[in-house]
UniProtKB/TrEMBL annotation:
Record's protein name: Spermidine/putrescine transport system permease protein PotB
Cellular localisation: Cell membrane
GO biological process: transmembrane transport
Residue spans crossing the bilayer: 12-34, 54-77, 89-106, 142-162, 199-218, 239-259
Top-level taxon in the UniProt lineage: Bacteria
Annotated signal sequence range: none
InterPro entries, per the entry: MetI-like, MetI-like_sf
Natural source organism: Sporosarcina pasteurii (Bacillus pasteurii)
Location of the ABC transmembrane type-1 domain: 58-260
Length: 274
């Protein structure tokens, strides 16, 4: 049978999955966003989202997502770079990725034990004379734990981009007299920018909707869009407002994906690097 005739049949499982678990939930959220807590049709949910309260909440979510993404990138790029230079790079990469297989809740509770007043970190502070410090329920602990959790997802795409980088391009830059900084800014960084963009996508987007870590590590002192959605659905039972926040969260995620989308670089056309 002709492959062109079979192609629509092959696409049925993917299309079914897309419709049932992506499109249908989004449409359901959009539907519920037009109803108030009593089940009456209303546009007040959208009007309320543009009040100062939700504006502050949105800005706070973007700020913390930016911090988490920035520090993840700050540590991930040099780590990925040095991994590509090691002898057993795939093994070292696997060792970095393995912690991401552990349940998120277990890792969060582990940090509660580490940062607690009677945890090992405060015990060390006592030994060196600093005394006990309140590490839990702070902005620092929230950002630190979030960065730890997301770093493997930032390292992987950057590592792949660096690993595919043609070393002759670096050698050519050195032969032409470029120093290490110029080689990095003019050759390495531009040719691996798509890996950075992919890392930003997989870190920034979920960081916008964090809620479990804000509960357990930040002690509700950090409120994000994800926390607000959880409160609206599970505490106030206002599914309409929760769905409205989710609609805008999806919209923000879509915009971020558009901004971080990039074409493949590193190929050559007529002697020019694309």
């Amino acid at each position: 049978m002709n492959n062109k005739l079979l192609r629509p049949i092959y696409s049925v499982p993917y299309a079914s999955w897309l419709i049932l678990f992506v499109i249908a939930p989004i449409l359901l959220i959009l539907y519920f966003s037009f109803f108030d807590i009593t089940g009456n049709f209303t546009l007040n949910n959208y009007r309320n989202f543009f009040t100062s309260t939700y504006f502050t909440l949105t800005m706070s979510s973007f700020w913390y997502a930016f911090l988490i993404t920035f520090f993840s990138l700050l540590f991930s790029y040099p780590t990925a770079y040095f991994l590509t230079k090691t002898k057993h790079k795939q093994l070292w990469l696997l060792l970095i990725i393995i912690p991401s297989w552990i349940n998120l809740l277990l890792k969060t509770y582990a940090f509660i034990g580490l940062f607690g007043l009677y945890g090992p970190i405060n015990a060390f502070f006592e030994v060196i004379g600093i005394g006990q410090k309140q590490l839990l329920f702070t902005d620092f602990s929230f950002v630190f734990v979030s960065v730890y959790i997301f770093i493997p997802f930032m390292i992987l795409p950057i590592f792949n981009a660096l690993d595919k980088l043609n070393p002759t391009l670096i050698d050519a830059a050195r032969d032409l007299g470029a120093n290490h900084w110029t080689t990095f800014t003019k050759v390495i960084w531009p040719l691996t920018i798509n890996g950075v963009k992919s890392g930003i996508q997989v870190v920034f987007i979920p960081a916008l909707s964090l809620f479990m870590i804000t509960r357990l590590i930040a002690g509700n002192k950090v409120i994000t869009l994800g926390t607000a959605i959880e409160q609206q659905f599970l505490v106030t039972q206002n599914w309409g407002m929760g769905s409205t926040i989710a609609v805008f969260l999806i919209l923000f995620m879509f915009i971020i994906m558009l901004l971080t989308h990039g074409s493949e670089r590193g190929t050559t056309t007529n002697g020019k690097i694309k």
